[in-house]
Structure formats: structure tokens, C-alpha cells
Amino acid sequence: MQLQKRITAFAKLGDFLRQFSTEIFKKNDDVEHNDIFFDGFKHQLKLAEEHNGWFTPENMRFAINGWAESLTEKNLTKWLTPYDFGKVEPKTVAIIMAGNIPLVGFHDFLSVLISGHNVLVKQSSNDKHLLPFLAKYLEYVEPQFKGKISFTEDKVENFDAVIATGSNNTARYFEYYFKDKPSIIRNNRNSVAVLTGDESTEDLKNLSEDIFRYYGLGCRNVSKLFVPKGYDFNTFFESIYHWHPIIEKAKYANNYDYNKAVYLMSEFDMLENGFFMIKEDQSYASPIATLFYEYYKNTEQLKEKLNQDQALIQCIVSNGFTEKEVPFGHTQKPKLWDYADSVDSVEFLISIS
User: Fold this and answer.
1) Does the record's keyword annotation contain NADP (predicted)?
2) Which CATH superfamily is domain 190-317 in?
3) Buried-exposed string 268-307: b where 16+ CB fall within 10 A, e elsewhere
């Protein structure tokens, strides 16, 4: 299959997804095979919500809108132009997916197929309803994808390379189990924000999107702040307060109540506003409903620290702190060329021999 055919198929998938990116679904009669797939995908969204309490309609719409915006002919072509796909010999690439946020493994799925390989997907039980349906849609808009996409709930076998995402514990298992295969192994990472105290209310309001979207469950969610000595958190708390309805979500509220009780019983110092807590802590991974913070003395020392800890960090959110920073409010809006863990998965895929 020619690269352009693959690009066109995924662009059509973007058109299909765009119908589900707003609160009221808008059926577009120009979208191919809508008579077969539109109502079916509505049903899959309902099943996904029922199966996983973290997959709220709002968060699924947010994820779907992100992919609808990314999957255009223009974006796909811009992403893929730097690569040479001429020598790719189709292999079978296994993907072991996480399930923390909706369609979290879609970029790997896209990368494997767009590179010309066959994909073998082992999904997380937490996110198993959406991707197989979208894969079926791809097979309808581009029949040459038939036979190139398979899913398994069993042990992955008969593959040539693997992309696996999991916790730090499972990553060690993956590294051992897949040691004889070309692989990308991902483990736990977290994102941080560097504040100076000069941020506007709008900056901090945008930052709250990086903190609360998907309830903080993603590796691109900010879980820690670095702030200068004497930082006043009042403006920060005022700027994030519009997220207070999040406490009405039972799963989130349970985590908030539990972690608050732990902190109080342990006599930890922390600040809270009725739905969110911040705690001084050197760790990067904070529990749900909690944000860690750490003071820094000067930016050069902080840059050195973050450079030393780069294997633990997914994104750095800041304004003028580092060349690779992510603007406030954009961690959950990655471009196609923003690779997880800064590992170029397309380069990896076209180098498989």
C-alpha cells in the first residue's frame, strides 16, 4: 500500500471522529460509511464510559477532538515528510497498550500502520472498546488494511518488534521478556511546571488544564510544581478554582478524601481548597487530587536537576525556561511529532530489519 493511501485513510478517520468531538454529536452525511459506523461508535462510547468510571463523556470528547484535529492530510503529511519509507519491509509489530486515558495507545497504532507494518495490539482491559471499532472503520475506508490489524487478549506471539507501555515494574518485565526483539519500552513518567511568580492569572488557569484533564492520570499531566522561595500560592488557588466541580466525581472524591486523611494522620503540611491539595515533596509522582511542589534557589541549578532527572519527566511546562518547554495548557494537546519519552517511534519503525 502506498504511503499516500495510508495518509488518506487516516484523514478519513479524522473526519469520522470529528462528528463526536462536541457535546452534541453532529452527523455529517459526507463522511464515508456513516450509515454503518455512526450509531455503532456512539454505542462504543457508552460502553467505554460504563466500563471505566474515569472515562467520562467530557474526557472522551477531549481525546477524540485531539485526534480529529491531528488526523488531517496536512498534519499527517507534515509529520511524515522527513522520513524515508522506501526501504520498509512490512513486519508485525506488537503494541502493548496502557489504559489510563481514552485512546492512549492510538499514536503507536497509527505509527505502526502509517509506516507500512502490520500491527498486533494487546489492549489494556481499561480501554478496550474504542480502538477495535476504529480499526474496523479503517478497513472499510481502505480495504488494503484488512489483514494488517489484529487484536489479542492472550500472550503476544509471532511478532518482529514491540512497543510496550506500562509501570516501572512491568517495564522491567518487558525489558527481560522482549530482550531479543527490537523494542521501545516505556515506564512511568510525570510532567512538571516551572513557575517564577510572574505568571498571569490566564497562565495559571491554562496550567490547571495540564493538571486536571483526565483527572491527572496521564504522563503528560503536571504532577509537580517548581516554585521560587517565598512563592505565594493564593493566586494559584484562585486561578484553578473553576475546576471545583471535579469533586462531584465519586472516584475523584474518594481519592481526595483518602489522601487528605493520610496526610492529616501523618501530620504532613499541606494546603487544600476543598477539592485539591498541594504538598511539599521531592517526588515527581503525586496521588490523584494532589500536586507536589518543591522550591528552587536559581534557574541554573533547577535546569541541572531536571536534566539529571529527564528519564522521569515527560513534559516541562514553563514560559522561557527551556527550549523544549510546553506552553501552559498544552500538555494534553501534543502534535503528531511530539513523541512519548522523546523517542522517535517512526524512526524506530522504519529501521526494523
Assistant:
1) yes
2) Aldehyde Dehydrogenase; Chain A, domain 2 (3.40.309.10)
3) eebebbebbbbbebeebebbbbbbbbbebeebeebeeebe
